[in-house]
């Protein structure tokens, strides 16, 4: 049956010789005219024949993927929930604290292209099973690090990136091969709800367990052992529930040939010539920069703000840092994530009926709107912690509007056989210039500023406050990148549509040659080698 797991590990995941079922409508949803009231979207029965999976099974697959995404982000942000205690335990400064997140993101970023390449060519289910299994094993020992082995903590956080790279590059492409049009947007929004919710639960779990046990180690141990157990469950669910759908089958015309994978270099050349993909990736890089900085530093900043306001005693060496800010920030992250992702998808869906550029414009509005509120949250922190929380809530809500929409843009401007590679490239770019370096950069700027002022709790607060203001500026730059995406989105979407339907073919390297006489015979040479 089509879509069943007949392919062995590291073999072609779907039978590229199988075309879609005769009579299947053409490319759905975003392809073609977005203003059309009756787009050629396959109904449930036809989708089931194409994918070999019932509507209930497809929804269950998304639920499993969402569950794993939730675990990923819970694990990622448990450390941020107890960061002040980690600084005290290892006796490290802000720049070293920023390295904890930077090392993890760097590992994740470096491995993403590897899994992107494999995900476009081999069985995606088994790749995810292997990565999640490794990730679960590494998390088990991450909290048993002695005081003098800070480098070992960095190493284990880096190894966690292996599992996340195997999953994040592949999971959205499975959803793209199961659903189309508005259904795809809704399922992506469900999938990306897990990012803010998981992040918030990570803060909450870390801070609450630490408060109950009086030791940050137990926050990591309980969280990571739980994550390990849930990770084993995740591997079993992946293996038993998830089925591999044929790539791009729901988007092909009935008489168009199936797409075959091209070389990795050909994929990269095509992506580099796709302005909508490049610009939207740059916009998402700004999102990653801001969220990465806030994720690590916001609880510590809020704690320093309370100390300066006299609401909380300072965090002294040997003492547990007592603060409710990690819990509150975690709750805000959960709420703003759910609200922001939902609002972004709904605004985009409604505006798309009258404006084909709705997706990048909603993303631009979210980033440009979040920048002033994030700035105000920092500026008001010395005067009112309540005002700071209000502005953080508004800013994070607007920032979260981008998550599902950016993924949707990638899926409809990139053809199915290179989507995992595109996901990997976007991950590399967004983390290389975004949250791989932003926590360390913020910490580095903070440390440099602190050295210029007399040592005090106020100078610690001001240094981190001024360094975090960089986030508002980067957010505005990201909004400009999404405005640029809006210029090219229609043409790139149409080209992807025609390519999938077999009506447009990319020029191969040999097509860029011309025939010239050479030594008495006709020879094909590159155009660039001929002087005219």
From TrEMBL:
Single GO MF descriptor: transmembrane transporter activity
Catalytic activity: a 1-O-(1Z-alkenyl)-sn-glycero-3-phosphoethanolamine(out) + H(+)(out) = a 1-O-(1Z-alkenyl)-sn-glycero-3-phosphoethanolamine(in) + H(+)(in); a 1-O-(1Z-alkenyl)-sn-glycero-3-phosphocholine(out) + H(+)(out) = a 1-O-(1Z-alkenyl)-sn-glycero-3-phosphocholine(in) + H(+)(in); a 1-acyl-sn-glycero-3-phosphocholine(out) + H(+)(out) = a 1-acyl-sn-glycero-3-phosphocholine(in) + H(+)(in); a 1-acyl-sn-glycero-3-phosphoethanolamine(out) + H(+)(out) = a 1-acyl-sn-glycero-3-phosphoethanolamine(in) + H(+)(in)
GO aspect biological process, one term: lipid transport
A GO term from the CC aspect: lysosomal membrane
Keyword Protein transport appears in the UniProt entry: no
Keywords: Lipid transport, Lysosome, Membrane, Transmembrane, Transmembrane helix, Transport
Subcellular location: Lysosome membrane
Transmembrane annotation, as ranges: 54-74, 99-119, 126-145, 165-181, 188-206, 218-242, 277-298, 327-348, 360-379, 385-415, 427-446, 466-489
Keyword Transmembrane: yes
Topology class, membrane: Multi-pass membrane protein
Signal peptide positions on this chain: none
Stretches assigned to the Major facilitator superfamily (MFS) profile domain: 61-493
Region (Disordered): 1-43
InterPro entries hit by this protein: MFS (IPR011701), MFS_dom (IPR020846), MFS_spinster-like (IPR044770), MFS_trans_sf (IPR036259)
Superkingdom of origin: Eukaryota
PANTHER family on file: PROTEIN SPINSTER HOMOLOG 1, SPINSTER
Family: Belongs to the major facilitator superfamily. Spinster (TC 2.A.1.49) family.
Protein's UniProt name: Protein spinster homolog 1
């Amino acid at each position: 049956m089509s879509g069943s797991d007949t392919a062995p590990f590291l073999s072609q995941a779907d039978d590229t010789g199988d075309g879609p079922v005769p009579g299947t409508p053409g490319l759905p949803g975003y392809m073609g005219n977005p203003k059309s009231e009756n787009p050629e979207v396959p109904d449930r029965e036809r989708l089931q024949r194409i994918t070999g999976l019932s509507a209930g099974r497809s929804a269950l697959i998304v639920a499993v993927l969402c569950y794993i995404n939730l675990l990923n982000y819970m694990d990622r942000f448990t450390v941020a929930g107890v960061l002040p205690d980690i600084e005290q335990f290892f006796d490290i400064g802000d720049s070293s604290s920023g390295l904890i997140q930077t090392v993890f993101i760097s590992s994740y970023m470096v491995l993403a292209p590897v899994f992107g390449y494999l995900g476009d060519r081999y069985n995606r289910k088994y790749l995810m099973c292997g990565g999640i299994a490794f990730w679960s094993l590494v998390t088990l020992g991450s909290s048993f690090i002695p005081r003098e082995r800070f480098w070992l903590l960095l190493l284990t956080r880096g190894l966690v990136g292996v599992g996340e790279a195997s999953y994040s590059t592949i999971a959205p492409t499975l959803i793209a091969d199961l659903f189309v049009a508005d259904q795809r947007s809704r399922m992506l929004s469900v999938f990306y709800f897990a990012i803010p919710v998981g992040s918030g639960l990570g803060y909450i779990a870390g801070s609450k367990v630490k408060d109950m046990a009086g030791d940050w180690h137990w926050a990591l141990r309980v969280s990571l052992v739980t994550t390990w157990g849930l990770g084993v469950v995740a591997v079993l669910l992946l293996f038993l529930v998830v089925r591999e759908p044929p790539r791009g089958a729901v988007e092909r015309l009935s008489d168009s040939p199936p797409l075959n994978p091209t070389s990795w270099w050909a994929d990269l050349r095509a992506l580099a010539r796709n302005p909508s993909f490049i610009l939207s990736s740059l916009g998402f890089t700004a999102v990653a920069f801001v969220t990465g900085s806030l994720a690590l530093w916001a609880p510590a900043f809020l704690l320093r703000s309370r100390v300066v306001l006299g609401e909380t005693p300072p965090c002294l060496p040997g003492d547990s840092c007592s603060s409710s800010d990690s819990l509150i920030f975690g709750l805000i992250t959960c709420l703003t994530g759910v609200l922001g992702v939902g609002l972004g998808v709904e605004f985009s869906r409604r505006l798309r009926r009258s404006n084909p550029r709705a997706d990048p414009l909603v993303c631009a509005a979210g980033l440009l709107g979040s920048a002033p509120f994030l700035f105000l949250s920092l500026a008001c922190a010395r005067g009112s912690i309540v005002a700071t929380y209000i502005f953080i809530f508004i800013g994070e809500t607007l920032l979260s509007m981008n998550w599902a929409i950016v993924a949707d843009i990638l899926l409809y401007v990139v053809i199915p056989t290179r989507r995992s590679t595109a996901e990997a490239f976007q991950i590399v770019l967004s983390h290389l210039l975004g949250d791989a370096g932003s926590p360390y950069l913020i910490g580095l700027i903070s440390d440099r500023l602190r050295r210029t002022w007399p040592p005090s709790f106020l100078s610690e607060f001001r240094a981190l406050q001024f360094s975090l203001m960089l986030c508002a500026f980067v957010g505005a730059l990201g909004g400009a990148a999404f405005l640029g995406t809006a210029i090219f989105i229609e043409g790139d979407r149409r080209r992807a549509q025609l390519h999938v339907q077999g009506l447009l073919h990319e020029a191969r390297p040999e097509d860029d040659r011309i025939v010239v006489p050479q030594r008495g015979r006709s020879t094909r040479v590159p155009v660039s080698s001929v002087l005219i």
